[in-house]
């Protein structure tokens, strides 16, 4: 798993170096990059990842608009001054972006949470809890605004791909 994260990080860096507008497609990573797992088919554009307090996993065909922020880090609000500044949990605030999920521009995902398969997070939304599969959420905080019809078992999606059996 760690090798896959490192490979994903190298792929993001290599892609950024080859593109005409590298700042538009360069992810910013704060914390240990080994905590970031980006599937080779996922698209992150210029996302910001805070990995201070957990892992971030992007499943196949998930993708981001521009300026998406994914936060695992937090601080203890019951502490003050220097103590609050340094009180960052080491784990427990993981974020998973499931297969085919679309996180639109300027959205913020705050862990711990899971954005379900084939769901959509609206522009500028702030996600602070799990998003069910095949759901559209929007707002601050994000709320369900509609459901996306699930493909019928055996239907062929555009591009010739069949939906995974686990999602049927």
From TrEMBL:
Top-level taxon:
Bacteria
Q: Region labeled Disordered — which residues?
A: 148-168
UniProt keywords, alphabetically = Transferase
Database matches in SUPFAM superfamilies:
Trimeric LpxA-like enzymes
Q: Per the database entry, which stretches of residues form a coiled coil?
A: none
- Protein family (similarity comment): Belongs to the transferase hexapeptide repeat family.
**What protein name applies here?**
Acyltransferase
């Amino acid at each position: 798993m760690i090798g896959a994260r490192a490979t994903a990080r190298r792929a993001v860096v290599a892609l950024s170096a080859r593109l005409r507008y590298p700042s538009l497609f360069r992810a910013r990573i704060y914390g240990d990059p080994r905590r970031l797992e980006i599937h080779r088919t996922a698209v992150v554009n210029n996302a910001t990842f805070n990995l201070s307090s957990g892992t971030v996993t992007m499943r196949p065909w998930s993708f981001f608009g521009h300026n998406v922020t994914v936060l695992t880090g937090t601080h203890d609000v019951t502490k003050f001054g220097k103590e609050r500044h340094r009180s960052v949990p080491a784990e427990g605030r993981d974020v998973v972006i499931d297969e085919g999920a679309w996180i639109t521009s300027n959205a913020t995902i705050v862990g711990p949470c899971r954005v379900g398969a084939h769901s959509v997070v609206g522009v500028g939304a702030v996600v602070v809890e799990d998003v069910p599969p095949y759901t559209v959420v929007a707002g601050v905080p994000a709320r369900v605004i509609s459901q996306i019809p699930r493909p019928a078992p055996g239907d062929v999606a555009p591009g010739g791909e069949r939906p995974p059996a686990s999602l049927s």
